[in-house]
């Protein structure tokens, strides 16, 4: 029990708010102010800091750091009393009440609530009332959750956004009063345009990693343009992927992976593009955190994965010690294969490329002829095939559910075959969309200012190289290089070249072989 002294009791204040979407903590601040007034009226000294669990539910069972610290302070007698706005700030479930009862029984600490005075946990009657209150609180929350789920289900079936944070691509709607019909969200034109641009870039990147943008690339572009999520946060790969594969962008309501029905707002993407995106972005073989479709991060060097070793493999940068220049080495890791200083090789290759682009026949020489069109089913035909197969799968499931004597093995076999055919159609749709998106991308030389490059090269080749690198991104220059030439790093001459001086780089230009495509 607490020793009787003339010193004022030490009180710790605990505040909590289950949901704080704005994150401003206004409600917990009001709780704290009321608790401080109660402490003053009781002659208690308030300990610092005030313990707070903002935007945390007491019903879910998830850890509450503030509550856990409060329990430890009471158990260790670091405080003589706890003050809360209401008992339900402390517990919403009986499981949180029982440890508090044990502590009070052992230490005699006091629990005060602004709304209903002292919570008596030192007598059997007080404990009984507290347990009844805990059970009532738990039932109230459970009933509220059931009502919320029912409202959301009603909204979904009516084609209205079920609630929660504003989805990217749709305008915010005002909360409706009980009994009023919810407002229908409207498409946000600016965000819808961004989604369409991102869809084209992602599909183009899938068809050709040197075109379009990866998920990481789109995130970087949006963040650079100060485009934020609806909550005002920078974009991440997971957040962007969720938006691009959501049924909302195609005007559908989806719940737990199943399509409930059409939405009441206009679709942002057409069904074919959306289906292609879902197929591509949900491919299990795809690593979402990587920035291209081949398991490699965005290259930082011109020749990474492009230059060849005499063995036929590509080279990759790295392997240099701290303070030394990065080197291209054969990706096989065999130390007997080529090793070249990366910056010297890149300078030589791009000086050669710039010199070739400066020639009058460059554009005509490297413009690829249009590939002959292959006979392929149209998007409408593939969509119709997809719809027919999906309908057959649903009919099969209904027939199995209605037939008590149906063989589960036969059902699973027929279902698997239909799902395989549906997946094949979805893959063909994704391939067609990716190829169409890639075809809309400009060719490698389409917007290269060749006259300006030629003028600068005639005056000063080094200046032309600097302008070329400053004007066009590394990604673009890599694409140009892949179209123009095959670069092979071959063994260099033995010994130092004539005129070599100590301290200067030793590099044999003849060890870089450039063959024009």
TrEMBL record:
Residues 379-435 form a coiled coil. CDD domains: Ser_Recombinase (cd00338). PROSITE patterns: RECOMBINASE_DNA_BIND (PS51737), RECOMBINASES_3 (PS51736). Keywords: Coiled coil. Pfam families: Recombinase (PF07508), Resolvase (PF00239). Residues 494-517 are annotated as: Disordered. Residues 10-159 form the Resolvase/invertase-type recombinase catalytic domain. The keyword RNA-binding does not apply. The keyword Coiled coil applies. Residues 167-287 form the Recombinase domain. InterPro entries: DNA_bind_recomb_sf, DNA_bind_recombinase_dom, Resolv_N, Resolvase-like_N_sf, SSR_resolvase. SMART domains: Resolvase. This is Recombinase family protein. It comes from Streptomyces vulcanius. The lineage of its organism: Bacteria, Bacillati, Actinomycetota, Actinomycetes, Kitasatosporales.
């Amino acid at each position: 029990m607490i020793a009787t002294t003339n010193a004022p009791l030490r009180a710790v204040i605990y505040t909590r708010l289950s949901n704080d979407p704005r994150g401003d903590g206004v409600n917990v601040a009001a709780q704290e102010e009321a608790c401080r007034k109660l402490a003053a009226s009781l002659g208690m000294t308030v300990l610092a800091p005030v313990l707070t669990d903002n935007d945390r539910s007491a019903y879910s069972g998830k850890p509450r750091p503030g509550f856990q610290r409060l329990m430890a302070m009471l158990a260790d007698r670091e405080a003589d009393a706890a003050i809360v706005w209401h008992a339900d700030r402390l517990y919403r479930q009986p499981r949180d009440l029982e440890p508090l009862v044990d502590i009070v029984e052992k230490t005699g600490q006091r629990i005060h609530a602004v709304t209903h005075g002292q919570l008596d946990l030192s007598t059997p009657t007080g404990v009984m009332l507290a347990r009844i209150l805990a059970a009532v609180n738990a039932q109230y929350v459970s009933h509220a959750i059931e009502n919320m789920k029912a409202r959301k289900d009603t909204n979904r079936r009516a084609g209205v956004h079920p609630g929660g944070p504003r989805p990217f691509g749709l305008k915010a709607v005002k909360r409706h009063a009980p009994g009023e019909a919810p407002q229908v969200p409207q498409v946000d034109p600016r965000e819808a345009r961004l989604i369409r641009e991102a869809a084209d870039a992602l599909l183009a990147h899938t068809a050709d990693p040197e075109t379009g943008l990866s998920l990481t690339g789109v995130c970087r572009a949006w963040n650079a343009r100060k485009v934020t999520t609806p909550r005002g946060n920078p974009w991440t790969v997971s957040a962007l992927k969720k938006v691009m594969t959501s049924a909302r962008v195609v005007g559908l309501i989806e719940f737990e992976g199943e399509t409930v029905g059409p939405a009441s707002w206009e679709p942002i993407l057409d069904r074919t593009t959306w289906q292609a995106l879902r197929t591509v972005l949900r491919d299990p073989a795809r690593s979402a955190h990587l920035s291209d479709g081949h398991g490699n991060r965005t290259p930082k060097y011109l020749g990474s994965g492009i230059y060849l070793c005499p063995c036929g493999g590509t080279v990759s940068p790295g392997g240099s010690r701290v303070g030394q220049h990065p080197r291209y080495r054969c990706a096989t890791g065999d130390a007997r294969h080529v090793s070249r200083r990366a910056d010297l090789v890149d300078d030589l290759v791009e000086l050669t490329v710039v010199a070739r682009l400066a020639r009058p026949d460059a554009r005509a020489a490297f413009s690829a002829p249009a590939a002959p069109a292959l006979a392929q089913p149209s998007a409408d035909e593939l969509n119709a095939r997809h719809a027919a197969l999906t309908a057959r799968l649903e009919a099969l499931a209904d027939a199995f559910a209605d037939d008590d004597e149906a063989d589960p093995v036969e059902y699973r076999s027929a279902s698997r075959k239909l799902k395989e055919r549906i997946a094949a159609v979805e893959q063909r749709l994704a391939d067609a969309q990716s190829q169409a998106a890639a075809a809309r991308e400009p060719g490698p030389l389409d917007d290269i200012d060749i006259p300006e490059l030629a003028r600068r090269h005639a005056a000063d080749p080094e200046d032309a190289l600097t302008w070329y690198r400053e004007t066009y991104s590394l990604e673009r220059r890599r694409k140009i290089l892949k179209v123009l030439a095959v670069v092979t790093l071959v063994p260099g001459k033995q010994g130092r070249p004539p005129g070599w001086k100590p301290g200067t780089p030793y590099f044999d230009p003849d060890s870089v072989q450039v063959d024009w495509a």
